[in-house]
Structures are given as structure tokens and as C-alpha cells.
Amino acid sequence: MAVTPAQPALQVVATLPGALASAAALKLLLALEVAGTPYTVMPAPADGSAPAPFQAGVVLSVPATGTTLANANTAVQYVLRKHKSVHAWIRAKVDSFSEWDLHTLSPAVAAGMSASDPAAASAISFINDRFGDSVGFKPTSAAAVIFFANLYPVLATKAARQAVSAKFPTVVRWFEVFEKYPAYAAAVAAWKAQSSSAPSSVPAQLSGAKLPAPKVDGAVTITLDHHSRVILPKEGARNILITSALPYVNSIPHLGNIIGCVLSGDVFARFARIRGYNVLYVGGTDEYGTATETKAIEEKMSCKDLCDKYFKFHDESYKWFQIDFDKFGRTTTQRQTEITHDIYLKLEKNGHVLEDTMTQLYCIKHESFLADRFVEGTCPICGFEDARGDQCDGCGKLINAIELKNPRCKLDGASPIPRDSKHLFLDLKTQQPKLEEWFKKASADGAWSANSQTITNSWLKEGLKPRCITRDLKWGTSVPRKGYENKVFYVWFDAPIGYLSITANYTKDWEKWWKNPKNVQLYQFMGKDNVAFHTVIFPSTLIGTSDNWTLLHHLSTTEYLQYESGKFSKSRGIGVFGNNAADSGIPVEVWRYYLLSIRPENSDSLFSWNSFIACNNGELLANLGNFVNRVVKFINAKYDGVIPAYAVTEGPEKKLIEDVNVLLKQYVEALEAVKIRQGLRLFMDISSLGNLYLQDNRIDNNLFANSRERCNNVVAVAANLAYLISSLVYPYMPSTTDGILRQLNLPLRRVTDSWAATDILAGHKIGAAEYLFKKIEESREEELRLKYSGKQGPSQPATAATDAKGKQPMSKRAAKSARPAPTGVPEGVTRTPEMEALEKKIAEQGNLVRQLKADKAAAGDIKTAVDGLLALKAELAALVAA
């Protein structure tokens, strides 16, 4: 709602003639009308005296606070975050959309893109692919405002819409519906009114959202266009293919899952792109197998519906974390079946497939063989009555379902019987010589992590054996062999093939990536529990086909990330999971930085709210944020935002350049070797050098007044250093890079091998200062810990399932297991204080185990608790024996 200037209002301010005719101006008007926020429009004065903090053409001014937002997308988010119907997770998606829009769509629109341009088709295709979730594109969402404003000049005419509608009808329908929305109609009318009054003599480039060409050394800049084209290997280029382990689709990823594969892979992919390499990064969800069938039964839905449900959780979680996949796909596709069949038939033809008989449990009641997870019974080792068919949660031992006493079908409680079933086996034994030869060379050339080499060596040392690759299931990839119509491939046979099929769903020329070992390097990211499948089974599978496959070059693995004092547990609500990180209200760049700073590269690491807050306040805010903010504020206050003439030949500058280049060289070497934590420490060390440089040179009013030439050198070199840091930060915190570039008013900088402190030319106009980070009050620690601490038993209200004291009635079996655990200290032995302390811990841990079993907690959580109990008992036994 536009108002008279006398009323309190936000202001849409033109800083260049004709700027109100730009798509950027339409974005601001749309956001203000949608939010119902009063505003005034201030055209640029004819004498050019309008404020121009960014010379961006149009800005949003907040008179009450003195804030000026020169980036239209940021301004849209600022306005709409005050709108009550915009949910946090919808807002979070806009960060990744905004990054793409900033670098790809907005410049194309500003340059006069029409519906017939290839750039238009690419942009509309990108938007069309993201219209599966209509909720995220409500008229009140920032994504809708940004895309509508940019598409309006392209789709304004009926002819343009007809040209696009044949290929992208979803986008056109959406556009026409939103065009009629009252707030949108009002904004378009206001925009047209302003546009019609724009001077006709204004050059076209000034009436768009494009910034004036910055004064910068163009040799160091880079444009990332990987989302606007199909990426294929290039002759003479360094071609890097990156995959991250495909997570099971039957659960929501927690922070340990995210750091273990997708976030680590994203850091390396972004680094490789900003170095100028040719990169393809693919990922997806693993959707077949027993785990999916079990979860589908538990949630009383079909396997397909379950996969659709959880795929969305994964997709949205990774988008919020700004994981920049070139393709994020699924294994439940026709291409997956076709490629798996082709690989299997070649293995069979080459004599690497055996047939053998296995004895399994068969349920007479529903006439089906039972996968291990569908069987429960009494453990043959410890007598625990609820042992699973693959592992006992009582003693932690691995077992076979056929060994269980009193087995019962988990689906219907019937007693299964042993029955023989034919299965297919991959004969790994015949593959071992070739695999050993490949492993020796690949692990040396690619500098594999130590644990991945250790795990692979242990398999080879023990000797490879035939491995079963089929299962008596219904949900999986079919087996192209007569007599196996009622069986599917074992999920760990065809899951890695998902990398190939996801790439094939990205481009029909997928074999140029996957059958091109001389020209493509394959980097894979995963947790250590997936190593053997990627270094033994999957390579053996590919080698056995005799095709010329692109095999693993570098393997990057992580240990486990623990949460506070224990493990992440979705069943008990303990820990932060991908779909609720945005609920904390803490920006994604802080999450990314902290997780990468504690990446469990050589040993398990611990997520702690105390260290999380300290990391933000003591590192990001006090170091990086302080340096950039201090430089930009000073240049704006003393130099009207213009970089002065400067020299880098004096002692302090020469010393800084030398010190920075030492660290820069180490940074590049670290990330080339995928040493992600080391790279993070190094760019923060470079930022520290910047703060020290400002401190040593005493940048203040006195320096400006009394030694102007010296001050010129300091501020210009510091700005150049901030520009360098923006590129080093990009792999870790891309939105922070955007913030620095906005303030410097510069394009993305390439990560170079050296730095001369002369990238920004004298006379360049920078932007207004922003705060990159905000302080997290230490008082929030307990609030956040409690929010993600899971179920608090004592505070739960009494229900029909509890008695008046809040206690749940125990089943006969639970009551039997609730007997006091023996202390392990024989009569006649004098109890020491250490023994008594351990006895207390054992009692507490025993109570925890019993409670978890009574609550039917997740098997993994019970096993962890049992392992802890056994460890405590062993410690006590050692004390008694001493």
C-alpha cells in the first residue's frame, strides 16, 4: 500500500535515473504489497544527488533505523520475514534460490532476456523443476516474489507465454494465477506507473538491476554457471566427479549424516568450482531394501509413499544447508533398473556370478521368506528374549536369524520354519587379484584417508569370499534371471549403482563421466561404515563387467559425530535433525561453519551447544565479521565508499602479502587433499592476519587526518584482503561470501595460488556495511539444549497408559528384566570408593537400558546403552581382580 511521504513508511529509493523500471524495483513493490507494509516511492533526482550506497539503481530504505538494503533479494526477505504466514522452513529455502537468482537469473533479465533466449529457457526450467512443492511458492513466500518479478518482463505478453507454455506449462499457469492475486496486481500497477515516468533517454543497462561494472582485476573473477547448462567432461580440463553416500530414505538425516557425506562433498565441490575445475556433484536417496519395507509397515503405508515422504525431508534439509548438488536423485527409477540389469548380465556372462542355496526362515502364515529384520526371538548367546534376526540388543553380538530360539515373525507373530532358498552370489574371490592391483595404485594416487585404507586392507588380508546379491523381498530392483522373478537384488549390490543412474537421469551422456577413467577423477564422501562397499564390493562389481569404468580416485571418510553426552536418536527426539535446524533461528552459515570445524576426520567428535555458541561469538563474530565490518565501515565513513589510490610496496604491506601467501598456499594444498578442517582453520588464520594488520597500523581518525597516504594503503589493502577471504570462505559459507561481496560491490573471486593485494582498482565504489554475524547470547545454551534433548520422562503428564505417578505398567518380560543388576563385587571383597562409584554408574546405566527396552526405543539406541553397561561392568571386574 503506497502512502504519502508524510506517513511513516519504508522507502523504495531510486539511485539512478530509470531504476524504478527494473525487475529489482518490482521485487520490492511486490514484497511490500504482499506484506501490507506502508511505503513511499522516491524517484532519482534529475541532478543525480540521490543516495547511492551501492549505485545499484534501486534500494530499500528503513528511515527508522537508518538501514539501507541495496540487494533486492535481501530486501524482499527482510520485508516478508515480518509476514505472519511465512514459515521458517519456507524462508530458509530462499537462501539457495537467491544465490542462483543473484548470479544467473537477475543479470540475464537485466540484459534484456526474452522468452526465446536460451537463458530464459534455462531459467524457467530451473524454476519449473522446483514447483513440485506448491506450499513453498505461496504468494507470500520470498521465492515466489523473486521469481515472479524476474519473469514478468519475460512473460508479460501473451505471445511470450504461448512460446513458453508448450514446454513449461506449470510455470505459466503459476504465473497467470499469481498475476491475479490482489497484492501482485497492485504491485504491477504501481510498477508500471513508475516505469512509464522513467526518462526515455536512459540507457537500457541503467534501467535494469545490473550493477555498474566494478573496478576490479577481471583475471581473478569467476562466474559459476553450472545450473544453467548440462555439465559434461571437457578435453584438457580437470574433470571432477563427486558423489556423497546415498542415505537410506526411511529416516530424517541428523547432523552426523549431513557432515559425514553431503556437507563435506559440498565443500569440496564448491572449492573445485571456484578454482575453475569442471565439476559434477551428484547425490540422492537409497530407497530399496529391507529397511524401507520395515519402515513402511511401521507407518502403515506403501513403500513408494514412504519413499516419497522421506525423499522430501532429505531434499528440503539439504537445500536448507545449501548443499549445491548438480543433481539430487533417487534409486527408484527406470534408469536404475536398466543399468543394474546391464551390469549384472555382464558379470554373469564373465563368470563372476554363482548360484547357491541358503537356509532361511519362512513364514507359513503369510507365505514369505523373512529378511533378518522381520524376525525376532531369543538370543542363543545371552538369552535376551527380544533379539533381532541380525543382532542381539542384549549382548550386542551379531547372529543369524536361523540361530534364534523360539523365532517369531515380526509381521504377524507366527512361528517361522527353516526352508532352503536359492540365491545368486558375486564371486569376489576371482576378483581379488585385479582389485588388489587397483587398490594399491588408487589409494596412493588419490591419497585415501587412513581408516579407509585400513578397512580395505583388512578385507583383502582375510581373503574375499562370494557375497550374496539377492534377497527374498518385493521392494527392490528386479533380477533378470529365470527362476528369480520373486526375488530382488540386495540393496548393497545396486545402491552404489545409484550414482550411475542418478547421473543418467541428469544427462543421456552419463557414460562420458562414468566410462572415462583417463579424463575424470572420482571423489567419494561417506562415513566409515560405508567404506568396504565402495572400496571392495562396488569396484569389484564394475571391474567384473570388463567395461572401462571411472573408478574411485579419492575417498574421504569420517568417523562418528556424537551429540552432547550420547548419540543422536530420532525415536527419542535427541539431537538436531535436518528438518528442524532452521527452527533454531540460527543462520545456516553458522551451522555449516561449526559442523565443519568439528568434522570427525580422524576420530569421533562431539557436538556441544556450549562450543557452538562460543564458535559463533569468539570466531565468526569476533574474527571474520569484525574484520570485514571494520574495513567497510571505515571506507564508507572516511572515503565516501571509494577505494583510494594506494601502493603495496611499503614494509607492512609487503609483510602482510608474504604472510598471507604462505597460508594461502597451505589452504589450497589442504583442500586439494580434502583436508577440510585444516582449510577452515587456515582461512580463519588469514582473517586474523587482517585484524592484526589493522591493529598494528592503528587505523583510526588520527591516521586518516595525519597520514592520509599511509591510511590509503591500509584501507585499500585491507579491502583487497577481505575480497580474497570472500573466495576462501565460499566453500564453507557461501551465504557469507554473498554478504562480503555485497559490501564490496564485487563479483565472485576465483581461489588463486597467490595474492598480490591489487585486485580492487582505485576509484571502485563499495557498498554499505552489513553485519555478517550476530551474537548468540550464552543464556540460549540451556534453551537450545532442552529443545533438542528428547523426551523428559518425569515431566510427562499422566495418560491412560500411565498410573497416577507417571509410571508405565511393565509387561511380564519388562518386569523380568527390571530385576536389580548384580554389582559384580563378590562377597568378602572390600569395596573401595572407586568400586562404589562404578556400582552407582552401573545401576544408573542398567536403569537406562531397562527404560529404553520398556519404551521400545530404536535398536541402535538400546545397543549403545547396553555397550555402555557392559563396559562399566568390565571396568568394575578389572578393579576387583586387581
Q: Quick gist of this model?
A:
This protein is an alpha/beta fold and 882 residues long. Helix content is 46%, strand content 11%.
Explain what this protein looks like in three dimensions:
With 882 residues, this protein is of the alpha/beta class. The protein has five domains: 10-200, Glutathione S-transferase Yfyf (Class Pi), Chain A, domain 2, CATH 1.20.1050.130; 239-341 and 490-558, HUPs (Rossmann fold); 371-415, no CATH class; 582-792, Isoleucyl-tRNA Synthetase, Domain 1 (Orthogonal Bundle), CATH 1.10.730.10; 811-882, no CATH class. The chain has 29 helices and 20 strands. It has a five-stranded parallel sheet with strand order 7-6-5-17-18, with helices on both faces. Strands 2-1-3-4 form a four-stranded mixed sheet. Strand 5, helix 9 (255-274) and strand 6 (278-285) form a beta-alpha-beta unit. Helix 1 (23-35) runs parallel beside helix 2 and helix 22 packs antiparallel against helix 24 (708-729). The protein is globular, with a radius of gyration of 31 Å. Residues 3-8, 48-55, 82-92, 132-136, 197-211 and 791-823 have low confidence and may be disordered. GO terms for molecular function: methionine-tRNA ligase activity. Belongs to the class-I aminoacyl-tRNA synthetase family. It comes from Polyrhizophydium stewartii. Residues 787-829 are annotated as: Disordered. This is methionine--tRNA ligase.
